[in-house]
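User: What would this chain look like folded?
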Amino acid sequence: MVSRLRIAAFVLLAATGVQAANAGRADRTPPTFGGLKSAVTCIPGPVDGDRMSSYHLAWTAAKDNVTLSSRIVYNVYRATAAGGENFSAPTYTTRRGAVTFVTPPLHSSESNYFVVRARDAAGNRDRNRRERLGVNVCE
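Assistant: Here's the prediction, encoded as structure tokens.
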């Protein structure tokens, strides 16, 4: 007869999946992440002057060798010129497991470029540079 302790251990291992299998090992591997897929806003009518609008960012969830996708956090970097992101400090950070993010309202008179990077529970970050220019889909 299988003891209750063994059953409990099996249930715990199954529930935590990869995390339990790698317990005790130092995680030094960053998540695998394809980067930002889209960055869109909707400012109807002619965009004249300086209007404010939020951008809707979307990506496919990252995968990691230890951290479940539902526990990965994403760092969002914003710049007003192509390649101008400051990767030493994210502009925004998402909740765990997010695959979308809505920025606070930003000025329409500026170009807005975005890069999103995945960060696992151990603090490992992917280093993709997939940049997207925010696009107004309602012009």
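DSSP finds two helices and ten strands in the chain. If you want, I can go into more detail on any region.
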